[in-house]
Amino acid sequence: MNNENFPNPSGWRISLSIGMAIGWLIFVIVWLAFFAGESAIYRNIAIIMISILVVFLVLGGSWAAWGLKNMPKEGKEMMKTAGFKSRVVVSIVIPFVLIMFLIYWFYFPAEDFDAYQNIAIILVSLLIVGGILGGIWAPWGMKHGKEFEKFDHKENKDED
Hints:
Number of helices: 6
Number of domains: 1
Oligomer: single chain
Strand content: under 5%
């Protein structure tokens, strides 16, 4: 990939990413070593999912701001395409809602069900989210896909 279109990120985002990763790892180790025994397994899963969500929100926000600021011309043109921004927003919100649902599920009702039923809930939730996202992106891709083939750089074609 050609890196001249992507300037180096500022050091604070990299430091934040490293700090969040180390902080999260310390939190998980401390949680599992000292506090997890007081809660059921599903509640521990919910708490770890909450910690992962916090990390994604903090890092996602900082890196998304950098990405939007340093977006290449192809991305800016794509953002102007009808329906693209709203699909991006839905593609962020729907998985966030899924994670929130799974956190709720694991924290409260999951203990009343066996492991296979909980796995089924996860799989059905993922299928629903995949169906929704596929359903909103497929028509857009069929309608606008040809417009963006001009941005398919030679490097990308060589990888296929």
